[in-house]
Amino acid sequence: MEDSTAQKQEKENQESGEEERPWGEITAASSQDFKSGLSEPLESEQGPETEPYSRSSPPGSPQSRDSAPLGDLTGPGASSPPSPPEEPSSTPPLALSGQGLEAPRQTHPNHSVIPEAETPHSDHLKQSSDIGELTHLTCQSTGNAFPQFQQTNGHLYEPRDVSCSNSKQKELRFDIFQEEDSNSNYDLDEAEPETAPSVLETAIQNAKAYLLKTSSQSGLNLYDHLSNMLTKILDERPENAVDIIENISQDVKMAHFSKKLDTLQNENEMLPTYEIAEKQKALFLQGHLEGADQELEDEIAGNSLPNVMESAFYFEQAGVSLGTDETYRVFLALKQLTDTHPIQRCRFWGKILGLEMNYIVAEAELRDGEDEEEAEEEDVTEERDNEDSEGEEDDELPRSFYKAPQAIPKEESRTGANKYVYFVCNEPGRPWVKLPSVTPAQIVIARQIKKFFTGRLGTPIISYPPFPGDESNYLRAQIARISAGTHVSPLGFYQFSEEEGEEEEEVEGGRDSFEENPDFEGIQVVDLVESLSNWVHHVQHILPQGRCNWFNPIQKSEEEEEDDDEEKEEKEEFDYIEQEVGPPLLTPISEDLEIQSIPPWTTRLCSNLIPQYAIAVLRSNLWPGAYAFCNGKKFENLYIGWGHKYSPESYTPPVPPPVCQEYPSGPELTEMDDPSVEEEQAFRAAQEAAVPPAEENEDTDEDEEDYD
Amino acid sequence: MDAESLLLSLELASGSGQGLSPDRRASLLTSLLLVKRDYRYSRVLFWGRILGLVTDYYIAQGLIEDQLAPRKTLYSLNCMEWSLLPPATEEMVEQTSVVKGRFMGDPSHEYEHVDLQKVNDGDKVFEEEIVVRIKEETRLVSIIDQIDKAVAVIPRGALFKTPFGPVHVNRTFEGLSMSEAKKLSSYFHFREPVELKNKTLLEKADLDPSLDFMDSLENDIPKGSWSIQMERGNALVVLRSLLWPGLTFYHTPGTKNCGYIYVGTGEKNIDLPFML
After folding, report:
1. Whole-complex ipTM
2. pLDDT above 70 (res A43)
């Protein structure tokens, strides 16, 4: 293609060789014009504009000046490859721009393009701002498309398509060219808006925005850099600009002076790393510190600290571990906890994963130092009562019959679900936070919702049945549920304590306290694996009510009832609410409920290769992440997971509460029709007949008439 | 996680609590080496573990030189004897989508699914019960495939695309910087790109074609299906998938250590929108 057209061009050049001379002069003149224009401080844009001409002139015009006949023959067409790509691409706007220009081209279809294209276009370029720079840049980049331009002079946009398909880069540049051109000669080329859809324009905007993006490292953008480069080239006029373009680019960059921004603060990218390391250093140092006061250590740390590392070793055999170093940090953190709080016994409960941070949970039994939190919470309930009493102020209108279902009081600390106190921290080394004690309402609601923990205790829990409390309460409720479901021990390890047990029996038939069996002989690991009945729950079951021990909500409310109907209804309900009973303490886990044909527990031997030293591993399928091990004598429970219960079905939000029925339409609501005239007259007649004096009746008549 | 650096990887990923017992580790180190030799993989990944009710499946994957080529998946019940799983097909995924609940741990176990199908018998239309039997092995294949496609993660820059097409491990990968490590956009799905084509030109303009040839995690649906945490005081990034709970990705910023492991029941968390 190119060859053929080039030859063709050459021929035509030879035919009209004489016409080439004026062109050489014109270009030389025009370039001189530009040079003189450059010296003027008027427009800095002129620099880039003239650049392509100064580039095209060295191959074209000097030759024509030095050796006129030779240059005439071969100069523009064959010997100067850079020039032809420019010219035709600058013609298309001209083709539409003026009919006066178009006419001569039609007479000299090909080579006449060359002179005419150059001169008017340069004029035009002067007018338009830095567009010219871009147009010529793009023209050179699309040099390949030159022949097509020549052939399809009439169809302006076809070659573009060709060049578009060539490569995306070209497309981009060409788009710029197109857009800039269309802006400047908008009225000239009418075809532009039709063929340039808005998608293309946005693409152009995108590309230009991309070029204008400032680099965060140098503070430069490519657009300015390119224009600076071209300014520099035109200022200095190097002989072989294309060869040293890399150096020029580098020089321009070096010349750009940029001061490092003063950020006011030191760059503290790694600060959290140091911060936690500093805190954890305290963990490792506390051993030394404690050496100072021996008495305290003897007093407190006697047996309150669990042997975390030992159980971690066994759990690692089972394939559950936090990693050795993290376990040791947890161990140290527990030591810190027992040193700073009056804790009788402590245990590593597990880890609950959160979205932003995790919770490390420690289970503790306090000695005598109970805290004052309960008093605060009682205040809250009192406030509620006050709110209720406020409603009673105006006796005239009927008050709302609705009473909130009686709040079930929470269990005393050290009993039921509040038997233990739980401390949490986000990372070993960070301060431990004591979780509030759990209320039955929180457990009941927590059973109906399923939320991820975020890792911040103060986060509000936004859920459909409104959860009474924030994340610390939800966490506490989940801990209570998980403990009740998954804390198990080998049969025989715990036994009911004899004295207390009898007392409890009187109350409700179930016993809720136990003690370690001093005569525990150990149990065969194989038995533990083979039979689930060798494992028992040692944490009380939580009733649907939300408590471990049954609380009868009825007794108080009965007194208030007055109407017979209501009493009956209530009584029926009372009959319905019988005492909820769950499995008693120390029930074997073989009696646990199945989850839709899925067994609730999986037992395994940790190693099949060396069974004689293996331990029994128990995994809960109801609470994924809950594990227990027993090596015959020792056992431990651990939970690591998201804190959610497993269900094969997807979570279903609870149904909305039933809509209250409206009051049934009865004699209290319906009213009689107004008394009619006949009735009144009959009434009057009756009265007149009965009572002779008529004065009072007249009065009433008047009144009634008013009402009618 | 790479089979060669298994011990370090396990230590790094242990924040979620799921590890391997010492005997499993030792046997994996031995047997995966043999797998690599026998199947002539260039790289063997320990993929994870699917918890069954009776036994667990241990899953490994073999990669050839091109990292994005379809991977071969192997499973084992005792970490020693590995069997090759067939590649997952669309049919399998569709077929096993009706099965819910936990894996049993027995590859030959058959789930029964009762399907109601309308049968036109002349004028009458009545429903007929068809019992579909699905082997657990099929389900295993399809679940692994789904997890791989949904949540397999690789940090940006760990792989690079060669000019000829294949994707190789980037030997010059120096780990993500601290600021990058906190952003989801620096992590990619370890699979053939799906969403990349839909990006706009401006979004594409910044992409480095040799590095950004995969989908980034930040556009995952629903938003918030990843939990990103800095553990050990910013020394370790841990990504946990909330859509497939059990998948943990770890990366130590500034080093090459990265990988993912799945330890879970092989069930998708379809309750995610309720839980956020």
Report:
1. 0.88
2. no
Radius of gyration of chain A (CA): 47
Contact present, A455 and A472 (Cβ < 8 Å): no
Among A200, A329, A358, the residue to mutate for chain B (most B Cβ within 10 A): A358
Q: Do A318 and B21 count as a contact with CB atoms less than 8 A apart?
A: yes
User: What's phi and psi for A164, nearest 5 deg?
Assistant: -60, -45
- Radius of gyration over alpha carbons of chain B, in Å? 20
d(CA A514, CA A633): 18
Torsion of CA B81, B86, B91, B95, to 10 degrees: -10
Which has the closest alpha carbon to A625: A427, A469, A479? A479
Q: Pick the residue from chain B with its C-alpha nearest to A603.
A: B54
Which spans in B152-252 are helix H?
178-181, 201-205
Please answer yes or no on whether B227 and A356 come within 8 Å at the CB atom: yes
pTM of the model: 0.67
Asked if residues A314 and A615 have their Cβ atoms less than 8 Å apart, the reply is yes
User: Helix A308-318 and helix A324-340: axis angle, to 10°?
Assistant: 150
B21, B230, B245 member nearest A607 (Cβ):
B21
Structure tokens at A515: 């003690």
What CA–CA distances, in Å, run from A145 to A6, A151, B2, B169?
13, 10, 51, 40
CA angle B4, B9, B12 (to 5 degrees): 165
Listed in sequence order, the residues at least 6 apart from B127 whose beta carbon sits closer than 8 Å to its beta carbon are B116, B117, B118, B119
Q: Across the interface, do A650 and B22 touch by the CB < 8 Å criterion?
A: no
Residues in chain A within 8 Å Cβ distance of B99: none
Q: Which of residues 343-362 of A touch B (CB under 8 A)?
A: 351, 353-358
- φ/ψ of A469, rounded to 5, equals 140, 180
Written as six digits, the tokens of A702 are 């008047």
Q: Are A181 and A129 in contact (CB under 8 A)?
A: no
Sheet (strand B258-264) strand order: B83-84, B72-76, B57-63, B43-50, B258-264, B247-251, B236-241, B226-231
Q: Which residues pair with A345 in a beta bridge?
A: A365
- Express each pLDDT in A115-126 by its tens digit: 444 444 444 444
Q: How far is CA A408 from CA A41, A382, A558, in A?
A: 89, 14, 16
Q: Which of B102, B178, B275 shows the shortest C-beta gap to A451?
A: B275
Q: What sign results for the dihedral spanned by CA atoms B194, B197, B200, B205? A: positive
Residues in chain B, total: 276
What stretches of chain B adopt beta strand conformation (E)?
43-50, 57-63, 72-76, 83-84, 110-121, 124-135, 153-155, 159-161, 167-169, 187-189, 226-231, 236-241, 247-251, 258-264
Q: CA of A278: which chain B residue's CA is closest?
A: B233
Kindly state the DSSP code that residue A78 receives in the 8-state scheme.
I
SS3 A313: helix
pLDDT digits (tens, 9 = 90+) for B60-104: 999 888 888 888 899 998 888 899 998 888 888 888 888 888 888
% of chain A with per-residue pLDDT over 70: 55
- Amino acid A190 reads E
CA distance linking residue A31 with residue A56, whole number of Å: 10
In angstroms, rounded to a whole number, what is the distance separating the alpha carbons of residues A92 and A155? 9
Cα separation, B152 vs B236, in Å, equals: 18
Cα gap A409→A557, rounded to integer Å: 15
- Which DSSP state fits A409? P
User: B-chain residues within 8 Å CB-CB of A318?
Assistant: 21
Beta-strand ranges (E) seen in A55-138 are none
Residue A10 pLDDT more than 60?
Answer: no
Asked whether the beta carbons of residue B227 and residue A270 sit closer than 8 angstroms, the reply is no
- Token look-up 């084509």 returns B197
